[in-house]
Amino acid sequence: MSGAIAYYENEKAAVLAPEFRRRHGALDSFEIVSGLYRRIAACCPDATLLQKITFIELQLRLPELLLMRADKMAMANGVEVRVPFLDRDLVDFALSVDDGFKLRNGVSKEPVKRLAARFVGVESVYRPKVGFGVPIMDWFNSDLGSHMRSLLGEDRAFVEQYFNVDWLQCRLNRNTRTPNEALQLWVIYNLLNWRRGLPVAPRRAVA
Fold it and tell me: Is the dihedral of CA 148, 151, 156, 157 positive or negative?
């Protein structure tokens, strides 16, 4: 399921309303990607774990998340983006290369990094990866948290059909302690705003 998981199945018990869990308890989020795993198993029964992960990423996370984000951010600033690593010939070559060449001694993208180190420097290329995270924890511990509390109170009858409102209120009141806790609230916050047709975040929360 890649890295885009807000709630594992065992975490849903706390956040979902009891009646909603009773009616939909047999559902599993893995069904979102299970069809893709069946496809690669049918066409490549001997596929390695790395090959399966690559297939899932190319089918799901790359088009619906990573490329979408790049395109939106670029277009918002009047920039036309090109993605050279998605050149068809290069992709075909990368998919045909042995796993040990791409993941060498625990280092991912090792051939590309080794080449880049000639021009950029070893320390810059092999430093730990740093993501493009946003301060959701800080947002929920201030104005965004207050706004979500208001949404839960104003629309409680609707929200209680799906979520354990008391649990959500407790999570907000104690302040988020980890980025994952903030992400879990962020998913529900977006759903509440989408349902009401409001902007995703109030201006003060993201200023």
Answer: negative
Confirm whether 103 is domain-assigned: no
Q: Is 2 helix (H, G, I), strand (E, B) or coil?
A: coil
| CA distances to 16, 76, 79, 148 from 82, in Å | 42, 15, 10, 38
Residue 142 lies in a domain: yes
Q: Residue 127: inside a domain, yes or no? A: no
- In the chain, the number of structural domains is 2
Over residues 80-119, the pLDDT tens digits come to 998 888 999 999 999 999 998 888 888 888 889 999 999 9
- The verdict on residue 121 lying in a domain is no
Sequence letter at residue 180: N
How far apart are the C-alpha atoms of 171 and 176, rounded to whole Å? 7
- Percentage of residues in the chain with pLDDT exceeding 90? 45
CA–CA separation, 88 vs 169, rounded Å?
49
Place of tokens 């949404």: 151
CB within 8 Å of 90: residues ≥ 6 apart: 84
Q: How many CB atoms lie within 10 A of CB 185?
A: 23
DSSP calls for 156-187 = HHHHTTTB-HHHHHHHHHT---SHHHHHHHHH
